[in-house]
Every structure is written in structure tokens, then in C-alpha cells.
Amino acid sequence: MDFSYSATEKAFQEELRAWLETNLPTGWMDGKRTLPKDEKEKGIFLRDWQRKLYEGKWAGISWPKEYGGREASLIEQVIYEQEMVRVSAPPVLNIIGTAMVGPTLLQIGTEEQKNRYVHKILNGEEIWCQGYSEPNAGSDLAAIQTRAEKKGDRWVINGQKVWTSYAHYADQCFLLARTDNSGKKHNGITAFLVDMNQEGVETKPIRSIDDNPIFNEMFFTDAIAYDEDIVGEINEGWKVSLILLSHERVGVARRTFAIQKQFEELVDLAKTLQKNGRSLIKDPIVRQNLTRFRARSRALLMNYYRHLTNIIRTGRPGPEGSMDKMASSELAKEMYAYAMTLSGSGNVLWKEDAIVSSDWQENYLRSFGFTIEGGTSEIQKNIIAERMLGLPKDVKY
Amino acid sequence: MDFSYSATEKAFQEELRAWLETNLPTGWMDGKRTLPKDEKEKGIFLRDWQRKLYEGKWAGISWPKEYGGREASLIEQVIYEQEMVRVSAPPVLNIIGTAMVGPTLLQIGTEEQKNRYVHKILNGEEIWCQGYSEPNAGSDLAAIQTRAEKKGDRWVINGQKVWTSYAHYADQCFLLARTDNSGKKHNGITAFLVDMNQEGVETKPIRSIDDNPIFNEMFFTDAIAYDEDIVGEINEGWKVSLILLSHERVGVARRTFAIQKQFEELVDLAKTLQKNGRSLIKDPIVRQNLTRFRARSRALLMNYYRHLTNIIRTGRPGPEGSMDKMASSELAKEMYAYAMTLSGSGNVLWKEDAIVSSDWQENYLRSFGFTIEGGTSEIQKNIIAERMLGLPKDVKY
Amino acid sequence: MDFALNEDQEMFQTSTRQYLKSKGGLEIPRRYMDGEVNILQDMWHGLAQQGYLGVNVSESYGGLGQGSLSLVPILEEMGRAIIPGPYPETMAVAVPLLEAYGTDEQKEKYLPEIVDGKRKLTLALHELNGEIAPANIQLTASEGDGDYTLNGTKILIPHGDVADTLIVPVRTGGIHSEYGISLLLVDREDANVKIQEQQSLEQTRKIVRIAFEETKVAKQQLLGPKHAGWGALQFAINDLHVALCSMMVGGIDRVVEMANEYGQTRMQFGQPIGRFQSIKHRIVDMRMDLESSRSLTYYAAWALENNADDMVEAIALARSFTSEAFVRTASDNVQIHGGMGFTWEFDCHLFLKRARALENYLGSSDDCLEIAAGELGW
Amino acid sequence: MDFALNEDQEMFQTSTRQYLKSKGGLEIPRRYMDGEVNILQDMWHGLAQQGYLGVNVSESYGGLGQGSLSLVPILEEMGRAIIPGPYPETMAVAVPLLEAYGTDEQKEKYLPEIVDGKRKLTLALHELNGEIAPANIQLTASEGDGDYTLNGTKILIPHGDVADTLIVPVRTGGIHSEYGISLLLVDREDANVKIQEQQSLEQTRKIVRIAFEETKVAKQQLLGPKHAGWGALQFAINDLHVALCSMMVGGIDRVVEMANEYGQTRMQFGQPIGRFQSIKHRIVDMRMDLESSRSLTYYAAWALENNADDMVEAIALARSFTSEAFVRTASDNVQIHGGMGFTWEFDCHLFLKRARALENYLGSSDDCLEIAAGELGW
């Protein structure tokens, strides 16, 4: 066991830190971290940040050097996520592109697709989204009904997608559509690269419980794609989607480090809030609840390090990702919930009236999405049970 | 709403209290409540108690007067259970007979069966047990495989039963056996009254985790019964078993009152145990845990009263019994578990070396049976979900 | 032995449900949130017509003269529909305080107006950091010849924007002690105050800050004993706790119903999701929470109405359990609804936010548990 | 960055498992419980032959000179098989104390005998009510010319019946304070003591009461600084906490395996019960508990071996989490096994009882959490 970083890794960390010092938006390091409220302005702000990252070669660090990456090692990717969480860096607008679509195209895309898309992903010229879930295909993703039909040289796409992040900024969509209805539902799905800037594509923001339009509905009405926009083989889209997903592994690192930070903030909150003139951190019951959270957040981090070690040793990510995802989303949710409870009679005050910071209220509401998006906790448990423990699938089809 | 008892009910309560004062075994009221360790002696002790109850007309209070009962109202039955818990009365040895088999025979038995069995149930001359579960039919009770085959005028019974309480004392068994294998598994079951004192019946105690032989295995090897021993119709035993079960409703009262008493004992334990020279009841965390238990045990009692009111109003017991059963068994288990935690470094000491009373350790282990016997908590949840909430059965057969 | 609502009370339940349904049910809070504040006033008139605003007011002042148990079914129904407005504060703070401590003049002035729906009241309790403790009552009322002069600020006042009268604990003496706290009835029409909305994530329950700056209040507006208003306040808080419990039970009731309906109808993997035990058993757990919350609340209301020995304990336990159960079930309901539960469009979030808004109102679950422990003599 | 056992340590794991399997695995505690006490001695010799009794003993005394991490896999395997005997006390109390505080004579006398399996040691800490606090060390050791005279009683001594030497905190000064506590090495062969078994529901881990009545112990048996033994004891307790965590992780590991196997094979309703999500997801929760317990324990062992800044906190968190997780998973395992889990015949209860026996040994989960809070500066 060894928790230290190598000299190269340390150098990498220092380079990144220095770059962040210089390049983070003005005032960011000092805590002025609000994104523009207006969605359009926010888009401009985030595109600027994406471009800065690109120029510093920090947009896709694991990418091949020839495409603008650094070919960073897994540990370096982890350090990157750790540092980004440390400074609460602005979100990466083209994260779907840089973390998933790009690497997938580099792995299984055609030469034409690589030439056409890959460069513009990293420099942020084209923002990507991911067209997966549908109203009747949430947990049961393979049940998607959006259809792509071949008419002449065109694929004509009709259907509806939901829960699409970044769709309102996106120029391109990595879309799963049904091209064959005859067999089992996992077959007959094809992955398309679809131009969002066409008439047949409409997006509509979804108003979420925290009143933030972070998700969208997408409506495809005779939208067009071509053969050259297909990734992998026709009717093999399910497999392609798994390849895409396998590139998401460092997302777990981000969540894991974010939890550590969230815990520290919760402790600060308990130190700040008072009752009967005494800081809540001195209340025996609060102390105990917080130390339990501490144990769980440390366990998450250590679990992640063990899983990472395993990936490095075996070269393959395992189903442990589902454990990390489920545990971190549940814990984050519980910690935000506890912040609400701790906040006493003013717990629902937010925006300018928040008793400490409106972040708590907003994150609390937002956290209800954590255990739903990207596979609910129930689905993660099934994955762990079936892929890791060998337990039977719960329903026979 | 009205939490008082009527004059008649109060008189009933006082009569019972007076009788208990006089008739409980010597020293019982003063706390000398140990049953004989030896199973045989214990049997004699409990038979004596059964006879005393019978003589005082306290053995089957809900029974018709002509059979030795009092035709007690539901509220009186509840008062009876409450009082029995209050004095920690010795268990009723023939509880299966008096609470279930007797009332069932009175309801649907033949005249011959009533004449032959009913009187001897109440006076304790014949002790009864219930032959339901089998090694491969636990939660899935309808899967029983013990067979009864008609040969001439005899039914020949072969198979194995498990988890039979009182079998080692029993003279008679209310047995479910399969008489037809051709249809659905809920059909083809028949209820028999089987003489335990015959060659073809063997019982073997099951050693349980608390090292008490309270349950038994029963082996039927060409055991014999006759047509007149069948309760209800042939192949209609599943229905008969439900009628039998419907007579178990006051058992819930006993458990509910027992929980209240258990809670008080837990509080006493927390008052007795010390840490750093301070009673544990003064520890903020202990106080909070105990008040949470208090809320839950009060909720159980109030739930029971509401369900009882409902039964009195409608005349029918509902699936609420499953709620009461599940919640009380889970809570009892948690409270015993907490007693173990509170007991610190000496928590596993028992028998003469127990730091407070060996009851805590024994009840802790025994409590693991609560959420299994008589339908596991998981089965109870299915019953509540399906019968009360209308949720779908979880597996289609 | 009978532990259920009586026929009259059951009738209240049915008729309240029908009335609220006729007004649009969950459309009421929806429209209110969207700025249609009038709907509250409109509904209030309806409540008066139905007699719901006089349930626990003495018959001599035009009410029905019932006890706290009769409010239970009405409040449950309001909770089921996330009804906005200071009904709990009016019926469970103002009415009990006026009935118990009001002068004849006060009773004659306020009670008939309450019954007729002409006057809504609320409680302006919190100052500073929102804690409830005698030391936190710092709003001063200096006694003059015929009036008090008030200076200070109250915060977190539920529906203080629409309340016609505020019940305000003020300091008439002492500095930090229980002694010196008095209750004043401050009529909005007579008092010069500044009202400012405080932004809340629970938008169906407006909360406001009210600044008193040299505000004059006539002496006859003193409610209950001078300097000893803290005790009277505790009296009212017991009533309000029970009222909140009933509203929360109603919320839980609806949330369980929603989860159950969704479990039976939402299909995934070719099955209604309620067939999967992770959903199915969770709905059962929610149903158990409902059962226990309702039983504890019924009992607390009974204990309050009958001034039972264990009243304080019963109320504290009911409040703690129910507050937590509402948060728990409302949260589970979001999860069961999956992505749809995360939308503004579905109603799940209304209950979640209401649960959080009530969670710590007048004391947290931890506070209540400690009160119960004290009552048990531990 | 590498967070896993190294090759040597993995080898320990494999070979310990093989060795214990060759000795009968769970038959070892079964036979021990049934009175076959010799099996412990027999196994102990085997452990010596395998080199497991010298893992953390200096090479100069015949050991392997490894740190606490190397004990982890061995202890996990022992936990998996509910092995009886004072292995944790010998390796994680006696060895670290002797290595850190022993005189050369003491080291020469004890360490080689430990390595060779000739001497088992245990800790005789508890008195009175079993609490761990300086004031509870009341067993007196009066200093004479060449020896101490001991009077008092120790209780809850694990495997005190077979231990050849007891490490005994005694009072050489003071009355209730930390000052005045010293540690003595009491060899059974030289000391006149009365040993009495204390009945425990965990029958694979004998605990005894030992009465010292005018018991003479030579002065050279003083281990570590006179009057300042309490600090040395805390040092050893850190080691023992980590050792107990590892044993518990092993127990959890086996319990999860059992539940999983049963879930896949036990049929009810025509299905393996592991198809029902109430069982399936519970097994996943158990697996998560295992994962976290193991990670926290690995880290605690690493922190101990490297004397990391956050060592005390890391150990306290690991101990609290793992103790609770072991009780939780062992309990769930009984429930998953249904009626069979309630039988003596099935192994479920062995783990449940072991979990309870270790739960509060050297401090409860609550104690550990408060230690962590203190370490965090709260």
C-alpha cells in the first residue's frame, strides 16, 4: 500500500494547480463562483471556459496527443478530478463530448468520423449531448421507441427523448434509436451522430424541482441522419452504448472527491449554526451523526482507491463502478438532507434569504436527481447483485 | 374516541386480577418466574397451569359457555392478554388448541369432532400442535409435500414437518397434507386431525440458536388417520388453514402489550447501567434512541387500538394484522439488539454471569425467530402490499 | 374503548375533501405559487361558509364548540392538498389563546370575525436566528399611557402577508428570562409595520419578516397575563403541534396514495414497477409510516382535548415521528417516481418542500424527543 | 498510489485459508465449543509452524519483522472461520508492547516463545463494571523488595484459561488517576491466581474472571514505564482495534458469501430466493458493508503501520463502522436463512454471536465515534 504520488504525478498536479491559479475566471479562487443566471450568458461563459481548457491542453487529458490530449495516466486523471473539485472549477460544458463521445469515436469510429468530429469536440466548437432515456424507457433503457427508418440514403428519425443534459447548448447528439423491432429489445438499436442544428430537432427545457432547466426533452420529427453518422454496426447500438459508458469511469472520481468536500462544508455548517449559544458541532447527537457521515465518506474514498488499484492492476474497469455510484449518490443526498435538518426553523429559506448559503437548499433539491440519473440506485443494486455477486435476475422475460 | 373500559369490562378485569393473585404459581407475582429447566418437568408445570386456567374458566374465554368458555367480547379478550402480559403469566401450553384448533372445530368441525376433541382441548387433557411448515415449504407454505394417501378406510401419511412448537408435548396435531398433486399447489391440500401417540409419528427437537428446544421436527412414516379426522372438505385444506389463522387475531394483542413491557424494561436497563459514574439514561444519545423506541412502541399500541376498533365496527379482521405482526416483531428485535449494545463489554455474559439479567441475552437470541416464524417480515410485506394496497404480486407463476 | 373518529368528524373529513376538490385540489397551491394570491382569500370564504372556521370556537361566539379532535380531519384534508394559508395558526393558536386568555372584549371582537372568515391570524414568534427560547424574544414593547411602543423584527412568520392580526410575543420586562414576555394582538389595519417576504423554497407557504419601528399598539391588545406570556405561548404551541401533525398526516396519506398509484401503473421491463420488491416493500414501509403517524397524532389530539396526564409527551412523540415520517415518505415518493418525480410538473416536490417547511417549525424532531425524555422523568 | 495488499500479504491470505481449511475450517470453533479444547493448542502449533506467530516480531527474535498490514490477511482468515484463541491479543497487544517497551530480558524471554507457539498471551484489563477508564483500574500491586503483591479481580479476560501470560494493568500509585497505572507480565506458571470461567453466549471465545489474592509477581515483570502504563496500554489498544477490525472483516466476508450462496440456491415459490429484491438488494447492502469495512480497516492498518497523522481517527472510524457492520450483516444473514438461520446446526449464529462478543470489546461504537470527533478537533 502506498498513498503517495510519484514525482511525475506530483509534477502533473503542480502544473495543473499553477494553470488553474492563472486561468480560472476572475475571482473564482477567492470564492466568487456564481455562474451567470441567464442560460444564454451561462452558455457563453462555459464555452469560454471550455476553450481555455482546450488551449491549456486541459480539456481532454486522457486523449491522444495528436488530438490535443496529454495521454494522461489513470492516476493523473484522478488527480485532475481531485484538483477540479478542490477549486470548485466551473463545469465542463462539453463533458459528454470530451469524456465519452470523443474517446468512443477514437476507439470505434470511422476515419471520417474522427476527422469530422473529434477535433471540434475538444476545442468546444461543437457541444455534445446524449440521447438515451425516453418517457417509457428510463430504468428500462433498452425499451426505447425512437425510430430511425431508412428512406433512400437518409435515416429519418422520429421520437422523443428526455433527461438530456446540455441539449439546449448542443450542436450534436449521440443518439440511440430503434432500427429494428423484430427481435429482443436489446437488439435492433443503432447509435447515430445527429446534427442538432436541423429543423427536425426541437429541445424543450424540463422544469425540475429545483426550478433549474438543466435537463431537456428532445423531439425528433423527421430528423435526418446518414449512413456515415452510424457508430459501430447497424442494430449493434446497445453494445456501442456500453463502450461509451466504459469511458465514464473517472466521473466516479469526481463524485468521490466532491463528497469529501461536501462533508467538510457540512462540518463548517455545523460549526456555524448555533443552538442555545452553543455551536451545533458541540451537540453530542450532531457530533455522532457527523462522525458517521465521516466514516462513510472516508469509506467511499478508500473504496474508490481500492477499485482504482484494481483497474490499474487488471486493466479493466469492473462493476465496482456501480457500487461507487450508488453509495456516493445516496450519501450525498443524505448529507444534504441532514444540512436541512440542522438548519432549524430557517431551513427552507433560500436565495438571498438563506441563513448560511443558498447552495444548501439548491443542492438539497438537486440531490434528488443523484439517485435517479445515470441509473437509479435500484438499478445499480441489480447490476451489483447480478454482475458482481451472481445473483439471479429478478424477473424472467 | 374513548380509551376507557365499560363497567362490565372493568369488572372482568378485576375478576381476572383477583384470580391471578390467588392462582399464579407460588412466588410468581413477586418475580420468581423461572420455568423448570427440564423439559419433562416443564411439561408437568405447564399442564398444571393449563388445568388451573381451565378450572377458573380462564383457558378459553372467547369460547361458548357450553364448552367451558365465557363468550368474552373482543375487548375482554384484549384485557385478558393485557393482564397476562402484566403479570408475565406462564405460557399457555395448549395455546394452539384453545386459540385456534378449538374455535375452528366449533366453527366448521363435524358434531363427532366437537364431541371427541373440544372438551379435552380446554381442560388440557390433550395438547395440540400444528403441522404446517416443511423443509422446502417455509415462506412458500403451499408447497408442502407431506402426503396423505387413501388406502382402504385409512389415510396413510408420510412426510416431514418442521418448526412445530409444542410437538414434544402434543397428543394431537392439526396437520396439512397433500392429497392431490394434479392441480395448482394451493389446491389438493387437506387438513387432518392426527393422533400423535402412534407409531408412525416421531418428533425430534430442533436445537435453536438460543439452545432452547422450543421447535421440533416431526416425521410421519405411514402414520394413520381416518375420514372422520378430516376438517372441512378433502383438498380444501388451504381454506381451512385460513379459517384457523383468522382465530389468531388476539395474538397480536399479546405481542403489542409485551412490547410496552419490553420497552419499560429497556428503560430500567438504561437506568441501571452506568458509564463514567452516570446512568446511561442521562446520555443524550441513549435518551434519543430510547424516545424513538418509545414513539414506535406507542405507535404500535395505538395502531392496534385503531385496528381493533375497526374490527369491532366491521366485524371482520383485516390485513392490518400483518402490519401489527411485522412492526411488533421488528421493533422487539431492535429493542433487544439495543439492549445488547447498551450492555457494553459484558453484553455477551449470560446465565448466572449476566450483568443484569440473562433474560436480555436469551430474548435477544430468541428475537431472531420473531421476524421469521408465522410468516417472515418479507412475506408480511407482500401480504400488506397485495391485500391492502393492491400492488401486484411480485412473481407471475 | 373506541379509537376512531366519530361520525361528525368523519363527516368533516368527507365534506372538506369534497370542498377542496371543488376548488381544484392541488391546483389551489399550484395557482397560489404562480402568483394567484386571491385564491387563498376565496378559499377562506368557502371555509367560513362550510363552518370550518368555527369548529373549535365557543358556540356563544358563533362556533361549533368542538375540541381539537374535530380539527384533525379538516387539517388532514388540507395537508393532502398542500393548502396555503394560516389555517393552523388561526385555529390552533389564535382560537385556543383567545378562548383561554382573551378578555370579553377581545373574544367579542375576534372570535366572530374568525368564524365568519373575516379575520385570519398568525403567529409572529421568531427573531434573530430563529431559535425558540425566552432569551430570543427581544422585540421590546415599552409601556406608555394607553399603548405599547414596539421596536424590533420578527422573522419566519407564516402567511404574515395575508394575516389580518399577528400574535406577537414581545418583551415587556426582563432581558433574557421567561419573565417579561407578553403576547400582543397586533392588528394590521392599526399598526404601522414593514412587511417583507422571505424567499422560501416552499412557495405555497409564504413566510415574511416584519419590522416594528415605533409601532403603537393599544394596551387592550394585551392577550393573557402581562409578563407571563411565555407560558400562554407554550399552551398554544401544544395545539399548533397537533394541528401540524394532522396536516402532515394528510400529506403522508396523499404521498402514499401517489406512490401506490404510480407503482401500479408505471411500466418498466414489461412490469408495473410495484411488482419489484424494492418499490413494493418501500411503499409498504411508507404505509406503515402513515399508520403510525396517524395513530400517534390521533392520540395526541385526544390527549390534548382531554388534558391527559401524558399530553406533553404524546404531542412531542407524535410531532417527532410525524415530521420525520413526512420527510421520509415525501423523499421516497420522489425516488419511486424516478425522473418524473424530479420534475416541477409532477406533484411530488410540493409534498417534499412542505415536509421540509414544517420539519423544524416550532422545534426540531430532536427537540421534541428531548421534551418527551424529560416528560418521562429521565 | 496503490491501495491493496502486496504479494506477500496476499500469499499469507491464501496460505492461512488453506491451513485453516485443512484443520476443518468452521469445524474448529464447533469442536472447541463442544469441549474439545485441545484443538486450540493443536492449531496454535500449526500457526507457529506456518510462521504466523512471528509475523510482526523482530527478525532478531525469530520473527518476520513485518508491520500491522501483514497481520490483516491472517486475521481476516481467522475471522472467516471464527477461530478461538488469543491470537489478536498475543500479536496485537503483547508483541507491540514487548517490542516497544520490553526490556532486553523480557524480549529474549517472551518473543521467541511467542514465535515458537510456546506462549500465548492475553490482556487482563477489565475490572468492576467492565468500563475502560483509569479510575476502574483498582487491582493493587504493592511494591515489596523483589516483587509486587497483587490483590484484586480482573474480569472479561478473553481466553484467560489458556493464556500462559497475562498482561495486567495494575495500580502502583494514585487512586483514580491515569498516573499510577503500570503493566505487569504475569506468568501463569509462577503466579497463584484463581481462574473462573464466565458464561458467555459466544462459546467459541472463552472469557474468564481471575482473582489475585496476595499474588506475587517479580519486579522484572514490569512492562514499560512504572506508573505510566496507561499510555502504553492505549498504544496497544490501537493495535488491537485494528486486529479486531480485520477479524470482523473476515467474518463479514464469510457472512456475505453465505447469504449469497443461500440466495442463489434456496428455492421458494419456484424461484431462488435471491431473485426477490428484498433478499437480493439486502445482500447487496451487505456487500457494500463489507467493501467499506475492509477499506476503512486497510486504511487504519496502513495508518498504524506508518504512524500517520490521522491514525487515531482512522482507527476509531474503522472500528465503529466495522463493529456495527458485522452485527448488521450477521443479523441479516440469519433473516435471509429464515428458519434454518435460527438453528444451531447452521453456522449463521456463530457469526452473530462473535459479532456481539466483539462489538463492545475495548469500547463501543459510540465511544469510537466520540474519539474520532475529538481527533477532528470538534
Automatic annotation (TrEMBL), chains A, B:
GO molecular function: flavin adenine dinucleotide binding; oxidoreductase activity, acting on the CH-CH group of donors
Entry keyword S-adenosyl-L-methionine: no
Pfam families linked: Acyl-CoA_dh_1, Acyl-CoA_dh_M, Acyl-CoA_dh_N
Cellular component terms (Gene Ontology): plasma membrane
Acyl-CoA dehydrogenase/oxidase C-terminal domain span: 235-389
Signal sequence interval, chain numbering: none
Alphabetically ordered keywords of this record: FAD, Flavoprotein, Oxidoreductase
Keyword Flavoprotein: yes
InterPro entries: Acyl-CoA_Oxase/DH_mid-dom (IPR006091), Acyl-CoA_Oxase/DH_mid-dom_sf (IPR046373), AcylCo_DH-like_C (IPR036250), AcylCo_DH/oxidase_C (IPR009075), AcylCoA_DH/ox_N (IPR013786), AcylCoA_DH/ox_N_sf (IPR037069), AcylCoA_DH/oxidase_NM_dom_sf (IPR009100), Mycobact_Acyl-CoA_DH (IPR052161)
Cofactor: FAD
Residue ranges occupied by any Acyl-CoA dehydrogenase/oxidase N-terminal domain in the UniProt entry: 7-125
Domain Acyl-CoA oxidase/dehydrogenase middle, residue spans: 129-222
PANTHER family registered for this protein in UniProt: ACYL-COA DEHYDROGENASE, ACYL-COA DEHYDROGENASE FADE34
Record family assignment: Belongs to the acyl-CoA dehydrogenase family.
Protein name: Acyl-CoA dehydrogenase family protein
From TrEMBL, chains C, D:
Membrane-crossing segments per the record: none
GO molecular function: acyl-CoA dehydrogenase activity; flavin adenine dinucleotide binding
InterPro entries to which the protein is assigned, alphabetical: Acyl-CoA_Oxase/DH_mid-dom (IPR006091), Acyl-CoA_Oxase/DH_mid-dom_sf (IPR046373), AcylCo_DH-like_C (IPR036250), AcylCo_DH/oxidase_C (IPR009075), AcylCoA_DH/ox_N (IPR013786), AcylCoA_DH/ox_N_sf (IPR037069), AcylCoA_DH/oxidase_NM_dom_sf (IPR009100)
Ranges of residues in domain Acyl-CoA dehydrogenase/oxidase C-terminal: 228-371
Domain Acyl-CoA oxidase/dehydrogenase middle residues, every copy: 127-198
Highest taxon above the source species: Bacteria
Domain called Acyl-CoA dehydrogenase/oxidase N-terminal: residue spans: 6-118
Pfam families (alphabetical): Acyl-CoA_dh_1, Acyl-CoA_dh_M, Acyl-CoA_dh_N
CDD domains documented for this protein: ACAD
Cofactor: FAD
Keyword line: FAD, Flavoprotein, Oxidoreductase
Similarity comment: family membership: Belongs to the acyl-CoA dehydrogenase family.
Protein name listed in UniProt: Acyl-CoA/acyl-ACP dehydrogenase
The organism of origin for this protein: Salicibibacter cibarius
Lineage of source species: Bacteria, Bacillati, Bacillota, Bacilli, Bacillales
